[in-house]
Amino acid sequence: MSAPVPASTPAPSPGPAGIRLGLAANLPQFVLLVAVNALVGGMLGQERITLPLLAESAFGLSAHTAALTYILAFGATKAITNFFAGTLSDAFGRKPVLVAGWLIALPVPAMPAWGPSWAWIIAANVLLGISQGLTWSTTVIMKIDLAGPERRGLAMGLNEAAGYLAVAATALATGYLAEVYGLRPAPFLLGAAYAALGLGLSTLVVRETRGHARAEAAARPTGGHHHAELSTRQIVWRTSISDRSLSAASQAGMVNNLNDALAWGIFPVIFATRGLSVAQIGVLGALYPAIWGLGQTVTGWWSDHVGRKHLITTGMLVQAAAIALVALGEGFPAWAAAQVLLGAGTALVYPTLLAVVGDVAHPAWRARAVGVYRLWRDGGFALGALLAGTVADLWSLEAAVWTVAALTAASGAVVAARMTETHPEKIR
């Protein structure tokens, strides 16, 4: 269920050239971008169940570090592309970057479906990482542009909910297809349909939103010229280190995706070694992003009312507890409970961190700040693949799980100590 925009919200004032900010004023385009981001999430969901199982059954990769190379390739390329997506969308506009991302996605489903070697899987995930960096980053930036400051948390909640509900639905569907038709090629045909539809909508129907960011910047009475002069290097420094809230958000985002890499690459292997069927693994793989996706429709809106910091701190600690439950639990019911808990914790964190970046960053450099934040956040995929794979190879799968649980709890403590409240109406 999603939280509606309150009817009492005052109508936004028109900006330059009649541009209006706010969800109600831009509802058709906002809904369209939600749908586009669902297709972006579906491209990721096609791999969540199939690739961890393909690594050993089709390509004979038993070492966890080697098997997780596809997550490393995906995370590293997506992280770097996120950074450039913000810069490119400021320079050339949001829509061209979105369309370019979908063009790059077109060959991705065919490569794991019919590729003759693991190198094809790695290459597909390089392309997928570039595509996701361009498309997901741009849909985030465009929704922030449209929403304005009043409902930014709700906007991010809806954006991320659409993406991760699609991840969940596609993971569930591909688990079923793999059980019935085999791991290749049937599960990847969904991805081919998503890519074609996403490219068509982005090219023909989506409209440019850079003017909305300029309208919001013009409405701020002071500091606009100073902010416009910030270099990319200065923005990187602020987002990564010098600004307490932005830097706390960046590290929390990185650790969040570090534990998502564990859920993606290690959890299916644990469940398979404990005797679960592919269909059961598909259900567990879908349950976590489903709760994550549904929860964000509420938590993003909630952060607009109660503030950002405490939701993020709580969410990181809940994630840590859920990961520990995977190590401690035994059997489908216990692991299902862990996936629900992990999804709930991630829902508290994910849209709220993006809202923090939107709160703190000036519209003149916000797109680049989003790119830097997402560089750190999706770098967590690569770090998580390396860390989880190495620990699993040196000790055990369970040791990898406990290591990531401890890091996630520590990240929550960093947010509690370093971040200040950023919601404009909640700052004291």
Written description of the protein model:
The protein is mainly α and 428 residues long. It has one domain (20-207, 230-418): MFS general substrate transporter like domains (Growth Hormone, Chain: A, Up-down Bundle), CATH 1.20.1250. The protein contains 19 helices and no strands. The longest helix has 30 residues, at 118-147. The two termini are 31 Å apart. Pfam families: MFS_1. One of its GO terms (cellular component) is plasma membrane. Its main location: membrane.
In short:
The protein is mainly alpha-helical.
- For the secondary structure, the number of strands is 0
User: Mind telling me the C-alpha Rg?
Assistant: 20 Å
What is the tally of helical segments? 19
Corresponding CATH superfamily: MFS general substrate transporter like domains
Instruction: Give the fraction of residues assigned to helices.
Output: over 70%
Structural class given helices, strands, pairing?
A: mainly alpha
**Mean pLDDT, all residues:** 87
Q: What is the terminal separation in angstroms?
A: 31 Å
**CATH fold title:** Growth Hormone, Chain: A
Give the CATH class.
Mainly Alpha
- What is the name of the CATH architecture? Up-down Bundle
- Main beta-sheet strand count, sense and barrel state: none
Coarse morphology = globular
**Number of separate structural domains:** 1
pLDDT under 50 segments (min length 5)? Answer: 1-15
- The helix/strand series, from N terminus to C terminus, equals HHHHHHHHHHHHHHHHHHH
Strand content: under 5%
Main location: membrane
Membrane topology: Multi-pass membrane protein
Domain Major facilitator superfamily (MFS) profile: 21-423
Keywords: Cell membrane, Membrane, Transmembrane, Transmembrane helix, Transport
